[in-house]
Amino acid sequence: MERFTWLMGVAALASMTMAGFSSHAAAEPSLGVCGMTSNLALRSCQTAARGDNTLATAKCLNLVDSKAGKDCRRQAAADLKDALQSCQDQDDVRDTACERLGPGPYDPVIDPANFVATIDNPYFPLTPGTTFIYESHLGQDVNRDEFAVTHNTRVIRGVTCIEVHDSVFTNGTLVEDTLDWFAQDVAGNVWYFGENTHELADGLITTIDGTFMAGVDGAKPGIIMEATSAIGDFYRQEFDLNNAEDYAEVVSLTDSVTVPAGSYTNCLKTEETTPLEPDNLEHKFYAKNVGNILTVDETTGERVELIQITTGN
């Protein structure tokens, strides 16, 4: 009887959930495309969370031991609560971004004729053969990031992009391997057209989350560095809903920064956020005619510092 009553409760919850979706839909047109996109992404997240809960609950049903079954259902309920809160947190970040970006759709016009062959933006220069080497220390771990600008190119949406091979090592072991694609327009803006990334553990790929290519499954490029930056500028760096959604805001143009590679003045500072990790906040610093020299994770305190630039590879 207890299990039957509990199952009826689950069914009632599902019914109320669908009713909630229907009533909310009527208000959507007033949100604008950006707000509606955020709302639909929230629904998708909630649906996935409830789907995971349904599967977890099904597994709980097959535990004969009464206490084990109760513990299983209790954990499933707690996991659902956490997942739904995470969905709401993501929605809050997206809604805040919509307030800054405006209500319209994100659909940048990409004309291959408006792009150039080189990337010489002073705050994000990418000269083939150049490798930027970064290091950070977190606990007992030493992380090394080798950001190598290759001589390879890739054509994406008709635009010839420069390919960067980004390799991250923890205590000498490769833990993340990525190919990034960038291109600069005639105005000097540097666009991010996608990445092919995977994380590894014990030599095996654990996730390819974050992989996207502009023009594939609705993914679109974003601006990684503006031609001319002003304090308060807020923009998308990438757009692949629920997979790659980084935002950047220019917060300073006059910072002084010292890292192992040197001391720099009048650095451009950005603040980066993403709805996919609502609690994360990064500050990045760029030196003129150098590029990114420092990234600070304000959540963990990790400082990823430029230690060396090599050329001629």
Describe this structure in words.
By secondary structure, the chain is an alpha+beta fold. The protein has 2 domains: 2-101; 116-310, YmcC-like fold (Beta Barrel), CATH 2.40.360. The protein is 29% helix and 40% strand. It contains 3 helices and 16 strands. The chain has helices at 2-25, 32-61, 66-101; strands at residues 115-116, 131-138, 141-156, 159-170, 173-185, 190-201, 204-207, 212-213, 220-225, 234-236, 238-239, 247-259, 262-273, 282-287, 291-297, 303-310. The protein has a 16-stranded antiparallel beta sheet that branches. The protein is globular. The N and C termini lie far apart (72 Å).
Task: Describe the secondary-structure layout.
Layout: H1 2-25, H2 32-61, H3 66-101, E1 115-116, E2 131-138, E3 141-156, E4 159-170, E5 173-185, E6 190-201, E7 204-207, E8 212-213, E9 220-225, E10 234-236, E11 238-239, E12 247-259, E13 262-273, E14 282-287, E15 291-297, E16 303-310
Antiparallel strand pairs: 1-5, 2-3, 2-16, 3-4, 4-5, 5-6, 6-7, 6-8, 6-9, 9-11, 10-12, 12-13, 13-14, 14-15, 15-16
